[in-house]
Amino acid sequence: MRRLAVFLIGVLAAAPALAQTVAGDRFTLNTGPCTLRSGTGNPPPALGKTCDVYLDVGSGSMWTRNAVSGWVLPGGIQGAGTTDRLVQWTGTGSVGDARIRMVGTPAVNMEVDPAGYFWLNPSTPTNIWLGGLTTPYVSPGYTYRTNLGSINNKWLTVHGAELWIETLVAQETAATMGGRLVVAPTTMLSRDLSSAWTAGTTNTIYVKHNTFNVGNVTGPVYGSTLLLESNGRFEMMLVDAQAQPTVTAQGDYAYTVWRNRDGSGADAWYAGDALVDQGVVGNGWLDIYSVRGARCHPSIPGTGPGTSPGYTGCAQYQAGPTIVGNVRVGETNNIYWDRWEPRWAIGDLAGLYGYGANTYGAVFGKPGGARVAIDSGGVTMYDGNNAVRMYATAAGAAAFAGEGSGITNINGGNIQTGTVAANKITAGNGGNYLRNGECRVNANDWVGGAADAGGAIASQAIAGWQLNGEVGTCQVIPNNVNAAVGSTLYAANVKTMPVAPGQRIEVSAYTGLHRVTSVSVYIQWMNASGGTISYDAGQYKFTCPAGNTGGTTLGNTGTGTGSGYCRTWAISAPAPGTATAAAFFIQGNIAAASPYIFFVRAYMGLANATQTEPSEWSPAGMTVIDGGMIATDAILARHILAGSITAPKISVTDLSAISANIGWITAGTINGVTINGTTINGGTVTGGSGTIVLDATGLHFNGNGGNSVIDLNGCRLEKTGSSASVYLPNCSLITEQNLSATAGVNTPSLNVTQHIYFPGMPQGSASPVYHNVSDNQLYRMSSSRRYKENIRPWTPSDPYAVLTLRPVLFDYIGSTAATASVQRDLLGFIAEDVAPIAPEAVVRDQNDQPDAIRDHALTVYLLAALRAMNERLSALEKQK
Fold first, then answer.
1. In the chain, at which end, N or C, are there fewer CB atoms within 10 A of the end residue's CB?
2. Structure pTM?
3. Cα separation of 705 and 719, whole Å?
């Protein structure tokens, strides 16, 4: 008989009993009928009664008996009888298949099934199986209390079909995206899809949502274009279904599709794989990528550089990080998989809108159509025909092209345009508040002299001290040429500049010194009553030293002696709290008798808070045009046409007017019908039927009614009536040397109605002469920097456009056999063809019509094209 050892601990009377051993092969619990048995091996089928428990002492298994199945292991204990065998609980039959077991040698699985799988597989520790159709959720015991992983103990990878989450990134954590994110209507496969596929046939796919566009068999029009990409696989599909499907018994939807639209082959896809619904023509979606866009998957045929349809580059050229807003375009039947275009893009624009590698910016609009582009070069706006309508560069230049042929250019303080229509126009930078800062005609607004001997400021034109091209020079002169050595010469401008406390002022002047050791400029701070608060020598400044003798040219800012006029300057500290105005003040130290200070281009204006260097010099004042009124300090023009001019003083080189009520005229020549007066400086005007005055300046003649004739031995020099021309009828104008005119305002012109002949013209290299059809004048084309201003960089918007010009052979209208050599079979271009491509190379007539071509300007366009080609070749060489 086997022994069954049972250790009982019970309560006997008031004290616990000692452990006892009871020997037997059967133990009855309470009054029965259930008993506890033991034995070796499985229990005999006929042994025992219902609810008995049998323990196999050999294997360690525990059996129970029920009325239906007899002896079973319903959640019992089963062991192999050895120390390396773990325990298994199992049950079969009517009890069901729910079990917890640990099997294998050593144990490899722990399972809870089949109501819900929970498998732990130590042999492959990356796998945890959770499943079961009847229990689709794995939930925490309490809401918002349990974490999955921890900040320092993370899951390696999470794979899933859907991510349904409230907060994607914690506030204290930065998340990265190494691949691509597509924002579009999306669903997922609900069943696996094999890679088996036959060309020319359709397949059925099963998806979670019923959202795709379907086709129209009478079109035929196809439905949604679908994009699938996962783990290196890529495939485009096209919905062929003609009606929306109904839900299946499994709760999903079946669609008929054409596969492998991209040509990379059909791939195997699995339930849970995402499908991006790009929709049909007109539908949009977002592509957010860090490395490449959706079009440029390496498995797609033709994704090498520049070969992907619709895009300028793929593979190494289309790179991120980039956000692109795409829209499907093309045929309305939606048959082609790759018909989408960007409508906006932000980030790395490589491969988009014609950009090359590593170009960052933003573009909004249609490729090749109306769009706005922002990149490192500035902002450019295109119209629907891909023509540039507006651009603004990072350097501050801008241009606007209207519906016509006109272009408005804005560069710094310059605006170049055709017509300006406005009720009121204010022009000028307003930077220089000084009036008459160059003493062009006189020294108005200036006071000064020697501190101990008085003096004055004069406008002088002294040889060796007058700038080239300038009219006058400011000269500080003491009353006493023997002014004390060590004393000072000074000058001040009476025009004050309004200021606010804390503002900064800059002043400067180009100076030349004669027997003066040095010269500096100052800011004179003034209060509301006009009193002087202090003289500010400048927080930043430069003092011109002795020996700077001026001359006829300007020196560089901050230079010393012997280099032309020296610029002295000062930038003030913030204005005092009681300052309401500032004035210009210049002062030098006398070194010997007869001292002088010459200065030109005086300047006073506002300085910014961080400025440490002087601004570029600019003329003074603002010009305001308001209705019929022009308010300005000076008007410089080649011609002024007016019914009348009323002014206290007009300073011109040549004044032509019908009538003028003028107090004081300083002029080289006055041409008029009537002059009210009896005396002209240097000669006499005598009234009556006519006057002829011969003096040191020449012969002056005015005949009756304005008719003037000079008879030179039968060759008459005539001026008739109100005509503005002088005639030489039946005479020739012959010069022994050169026929020349002096440049200046209203320079007299030579008008020829027929031809100009140059017999015996010598050969040689010289400046070309051009005829301007807008004013019928001849101009000499000069290239020297001496004749130029407002010099600025220039680059055509499309350097290659000039290469599209078509050369032609042509004849001039009205040509004859006599002029055939110069008017027929000529090679060139048509001005109307050149105007939209190279507007700067076209000369326009009085009606703004293209008239001629500036060949030298066209050469500049060709040079720009060559430079662009060279840069492109250099870039290609670097990529090899």
1. C
2. 0.43
3. 11
